[in-house]
Structures are given as structure tokens and as C-alpha cells.
Specification:
The chain has 12 helices and 7 strands. By secondary structure, it is an alpha/beta fold. The structure holds S-adenosylmethionine.
């Protein structure tokens, strides 16, 4: 048995143990408040492996095309009002982060975790960026982008840990990837060390005054989890996003200390609940097509995951952090 198979088996055993955990005192809803923190730390600071990322994102470009917006943006949108469409709200999110990172009109921008390239296209088509580099661990996403070549875009199947740019970037943006940078089960000190490595690299790649705009799911402060929520969250950790651990906002901030100043932070859990519900509604409206592509079990899993995560945002078990950092002057 490989090391990774062994750790997966340990995780399943721990999951079963946790679901049978005895009640704790008032204020925890019968579930240990430390639920997502109590596993033994991994031996390494590596985040989700390429295999774990591909398990999720390589389910099929046609499948994701069925229920995401036309630009295939797979992260929380930014809504302006009740009548906003998902597509408009995704463009608004991109424009917000591009503006916040001072990326518009610049020469070189890095997108860490570029997905199917929605931000890269927005950077070069709408914001006059001359060269946009995207990193992903998903071969299917890279293949999708290779079918629409653009000399301004440079997409690589590469972990940011291995990225070695020849020139600095003017701005860096990362949306919905930070959630994968710490392996599941890592304790706070290990998570902070893993995130700190990321921030240290980003700082080195930016000039003084350069900005990093980061969007990530974070843990929320409502620790009264129902048993259903516990099961949903563990299901997501085991089946949907293996090897990935949600950060606390304070872990990201601590990891950035002495590397970056914080320019702004906003928390938008309602926007992610709404995004997930729109995705789920579209998926269920196209259930037959989806099942033909990926099978009934995968569609049932995504139905459960998208519904469960929307509820977790509503109840503030999860938050959605959009945080802008600036490298201090030399
Ligand atoms: C939820 S998707 C978000 C994609 C895109 N940013 C969006 O908003 O549509 C997460 C992305 O992060 C990438 N990713 C995860 N871990 C990574 C790592 N260590 N290095 C580079 N990319 C990574 C995945 O391959 C995927 O493209």
C-alpha cells in the first residue's frame, strides 16, 4: 500500500470515529468544536496532490460546461443585486479583483489556479494586460485552454511550488485555489507554514508595492454544527475535495505577516451560497445530460455537495474571504 493510500485509509477510519464522537458541552451542537482540526498532522506541507486535484477537476470539461456560467468560472461570484445573472456576477468578481490587484494595463500578471481561464481572458480582453500566466494542476483545464490559443496567454500544468518565473509579475491573483494549499489534517502550525511558503513566493515575484488579490473559502465562526452538516462536510473532504483543508482567516493573515500589508478584506458567504444554488439548479435542470456524461452517482454526489456547501455558507460554518495584500516598500 502506498503512503497516500495508507493516509486515505487512516482518514476514512478517523471520519468514522468522528461521526461517533461523544457529545461535547453546550455551544458545540453536540459536535467537537475542533472537528476539522483534530486529526494528526501530515508529515509534509504539500497541499493537495496533482492526483487529488485531477480527481475533481478532470471529471470532464463537458460536465462542468453544463452547469457553470459560459466562461466556466468555478468560484464564488460577486452579486450587485437580486436580478443579477451569474455570468454578470462572475465578470464583476473578476473586475473587482483585477482592480484591487492594480493589474489592469500591466505587462505581466500571474493567476495561481487558473481553472478554465475565465480570469486570464478577462485580463487580456478587457483590461489590456499584455501577458497573463496561468497555473493549474488539472490537465483537462490545460487541454481546454490549449484549444483556444492566444499568444498573450501562457498556461502551465504546474504547482506554484515549482513555478520559477524568469521575470517578476506586476500583480498576482488567486481565486479558489488557496483551499488546496494545505493538506487535510494539517494542524494550525503546519497550515500557517504551508501558506507562508505561498506568500513568500508571491512576495518574491512582485516588486515593492505590487499586489496579490486572494479569494478563498474560509472557516466560519458558527461552530454549532448539526450532524447532517458534519456528515456533509466530511463527505466533501473525503469524496469531493480529497487532501484539501479549509483555512481560518487568521491562518492566512498570520502566514502573511512580515511579508505583506493587508489592503482590504471582505467576507461574502451569502454570495457563495447564491452561486452554489445557481450551479445546483442548473445541474439538476440538466440532470439527464449530466448523468449521461458522468453517471448517476457522480451527479448525486455533486447535488449533495453543492446543496450542503450552500447551507454551510448560509449558516456561517463557512465564509468567503476576498483579501488584497500589498508588498511593502523595500
Ligand atoms: C476551484 S478551481 C478555481 C479556478 C479558477 N480560479 C476559477 O475561479 O474559476 C481551483 C484551481 O486551483 C488549481 N490548483 C489547486 N492547487 C494548485 C497548486 N498547488 N498549484 C497550482 N494550481 C492549483 C486547480 O487546478 C484549479 O484550477
Amino acid at each position: 500500500m502506498s503512503e497516500r493510500e495508507g493516509s486515505q485509509r487512516d482518514r476514512a477510519a478517523t471520519t468514522a470515529g468522528r461521526l461517533a464522537a461523544p457529545r461535547e458541552g453546550a455551544g458545540t451542537g453536540g459536535v467537537p468544536a475542533s472537528l476539522l482540526e483534530e486529526r494528526a498532522p501530515a508529515a509534509t506541507y504539500q497541499g493537495a496532490s496533482a492526483a487529488a486535484i485531477q480527481h475533481h477537476y478532470d471529471l470532464g470539461n463537458d460536465f462542468y460546461s453544463l452547469w457553470l456560467d459560459p466562461e466556466l468560472v468555478y468560484s464564488c461570484a460577486l452579486y450587485a443585486g437580486p436580478d443579477d445573472t451569474l455570468a454578470a456576477a462572475q465578470h464583476r468578481k473578476h473586475d473587482y479583483l483585477i482592480t484591487a490587484a492594480k493589474a489592469a494595463g500591466s505587462d505581466r500578471v500571474l493567476d495561481v489556479g487558473c481553472g478554465w481561464g475565465g480570469l486570464l481572458r478577462r485580463l487580456v480582453h478587457r483590461h489590456g494586460v499584455r501577458h497573463a500566466v496561468g497555473l493549474t494542476l488539472s490537465q483537462a483545464q490545460a487541454d481546454f485552454l490549449a484549444r483556444q490559443p492566444d499568444e498573450r496567454l501562457d498556461v502551465r500544468v504546474q504547482n506554484w511550488i515549482e513555478h520559477q518565473p524568469q521575470e517578476p509579475y506586476d500583480a498576482i491573483i488567486s481565486i479558489g485555489a488557496f483551499e488546496h494549499f494545505a493538506d487535510f489534517g494539517l494542524r494550525r502550525d503546519g497550515k500557517v507554514a504551508a501558506y507562508r511558503e505561498f506568500f513568500a513566493r508571491c512576495r518574491d515575484w512582485l516588486p515593492p508595492g505590487g499586489r496579490l488579490a486572494l479569494q478563498s473559502i474560509v472557516k466560519g465562526n458558527n461552530t454549532r454544527l448539526s450532524k447532517k452538516t458534519v456528515r456533509d462536510l466530511l463527505f466533501m473532504a473525503d469524496v469531493i475535495f480529497p487532501e484539501s483543508e479549509t483555512p481560518w482567516p487568521s491562518e492566512a493573515l498570520e502566514a502573511s505577516e512580515r511579508l505583506f500589508d493587508v489592503v482590504s478584506v471582505r467576507n461574502d458567504p451569502d454570495h457563495y451560497a447564491r452561486t452554489c444554488r445557481q450551479w445546483r439548479d442548473t445541474l439538476l435542470a440538466r440532470r439527464e445530460q449530466a448523468e449521461a456524461l458522468v453517471g448517476t452517482q457522480a451527479v448525486a454526489d455533486y447535488d449533495r455537495y453543492l446543496g450542503g456547501v450552500a447551507d454551510a455558507f448560509d449558516r456561517r460554518h463557512l465564509g468567503l474571504m476576498r483579501i488584497v495584500f500589498e508588498r511593502p516598500p523595500a
